[in-house]
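Two quick folds needed for the group meeting slides. Do the first one here.
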Amino acid sequence: MEAWNQSIAATVAGDAGPGPAAAGSSGPGSAGSTATETPGFTTAGGANGKSRGGSGGVPGRGGDPAATAPTGRRHPDWLKVRLAQGPNYNRLKRLLRGMSLHTVCEEARCPNIYECFENLTATFMILGNICTRACRFCAVTTGRPTELDWAEPERVADAVERLGLQHVVVTSVARDDLRDGGAIIFAETVRAIRRRCPDTAVEVLIPDFNGDWDALQVVLDAEPDILNHNVETVRRLSDKVRSRATYDRSLALLAESKRRAPHIKTKSGLMLGLGETWDEILETLRDLRAHQVDIVTIGQYLRPTRDPIHLPVEKYYHPDEFAELKRIGLALGFAHVESGPLVRSSYHAHEQADRARARQGGAVPAAVDATVAAAAGAGETSASGPAVIGVAGGRATGAVGGAAGA
């Protein structure tokens, strides 16, 4: 399964909000911590913002990735998120249950669910909640799917209309049991949203459809505003981390999408902390840019459970390292780079799209706050966490990215 929001076991602290809590280090040179992570919902702390394995100089260039230490240490302070179940959180939960809809926010155990749900945002996960793949970073259930609901597209569109969203993200589990991988349900969902909410931007986070470009074309024919497919990790680790998917097939899908529909923005994401080197991260960014990807997201991998199928965290990257990767990504020519410890595929997806338009000279919708447009070329890093399905109530909000099968 591909959207790496699934790979999250949230770190919870009642006294600190999302984002870097205490970064006592002096800059990018004092990069990440070696990982001895505790999966699941735990109290963050212990790192005190100091290096536990990085070296001086440019972040992440300390040679080989840090080795995994015995489990038990708490997550670094900058991975704290606030657990707060406010009125909007409970309202959205009731709405989703009442309409028999799934979200990747819940299925993938995203750490930003409290923030996003309170902002009335979520990423819809279609085609059921059982995936045919068993990726080693993913919290979504693997098994034999039993669900193919042709009425689901209209229910998703109804929810989008009720919430008044201006940007919505739709993802799915992998459905290798279906001949088209579920492409027609993606397409019908996009069209249903267009009929009910013609001014709403629609982003899809899709699986690789096993390299079936006819299935890809079915989705492109529905004219989503953004087509997202995550490469997830660096080339060397791809076979270890992902089930059935391949690094080159993911790159090919992104390139094919741009070739067939050059007006549709493409987007991809990768997670860090699985044992990659700094040079491999940069190689992946160069590969994505060479395949004409417009938007990229970069965040920290967190182990969903202690189950042996889920890979341990090899390193915690410091917020300064994510800031450096954002700077490098923009210099490579990406229209937008969202980079931070808690960033996931759909983190501030609406703002990502607007900033990308601003950098490429396109018009920024009036509903977006002026600071969002101004930030397009500022290179600032948001480390607060992944969120974005849309803009509700006339203000930018966020919702987590999808569970699309690798």
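Then this one, please, same format:
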Amino acid sequence: MRVTTLRRGTLRHSPMLCEVNKETSVRHTHENNNKHEEIGTCKSRKSFMIGFTQPLRPVSNNNNNNNRYSYSCFATTSTCSSFISYRNVSLRTQFRVPVFPFVVLCSANSFYDFMVEPVPGDELARTISCNGKVSLKSLVATGLVDGAARIQETKPVATAALGRTLICALLLSAGKKSDETVNIEFRGSGPLRTVVAVADGLGQVRGYVGDRNVDLPPNRKGKLDVSRAIGEGIVRVTRNHYTWKQPYQGLTRIVSGEVAEDIANYLYQSEQIFSAVAAGVFVKPDGSVSAAGGYLVQLLPGASEETLKLLEETLYSLEYSPTEMIRLGMNSTDIVNKLAEGLNIQQVHKSRPLYRCHCSIDRVERTVALLPKDEIDQLVASIGTLQVKCEFCNRTYQLTPPEIEQIYQDRK
């Protein structure tokens, strides 16, 4: 059981603040009009703790066509007021809070829906050849990339760079252990400066770019100039698992700045794996993403020259790029089958990728508690309120001077 708690008895989230009174009432407060509405009562007048005991899941609602989600919660008496922090979903409607144990029902704001459950149509398919010499993976992640661009408010060039990196991270992590992570980091001389994506074996990914407002004219081919936006520099790929003594890290130079070519070069130079990597993002004039996906084909140890030649012929004969195949209606399984022409393959395994950010007010408080108090005091004295912004989901956390003081009191 993993419970995220927020001290001082306030559930904070924009655009709705949720507040639990120490006495009997449970209220929600809208930021716009500061209107309070009592929506439930508690039978205990003591301070108590609310915690989620399972992830968000859809529930049926016959009276409303909107999706609704349910958390199973528990509540216990406590000597201090500690409450759950709604940090992985944006809430916009009322809670239904009966007696203990709590069941909290809410509707998810569509702005963050893609972080709650996989977007329909997004899918990752993977398989290997029957002789065990070829690995094939394909990914459709249109909704995931569009959601990431929307919450981070990226310009088209930044959207393309971020989307391609997210796609490559998901492809590299697919089939790994659930707790194994793959971190891809581009550090270049271009205006983007940095592009980062982190994925795990569960198909969860997050990422950001150094400058989301980069806007460049198209390149000679009339496409988004991602290569110029990234520039020259290095690409670092880090694989890690909590059971390892230390992470595995590979470092190669950026050869083109187009992301997929650089990942293919990394796989060959650092991991000695012959690979074909493709990643694409189609951005419409209004900035939204209408197609995003890619594929990864790798020769495994012991592959013959005949197998290599067959794969080369298949890849060179492809008429469409990943985004073009997606826009033509092909799903991830269709793309895998297209890549596997001439090969006998095993059963195709499918999974659903999800954009997942792990930020929370708890992490912010723990970080602040590790900093010297005099430095925090000087910072608060100059700006009044401490603000921390998450690069992965663009959410801002605020701590007032009394809250900061309480953090250091708790540390003692």
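Slide caption for protein two: DSSP finds eleven helices and 23 strands in the chain.
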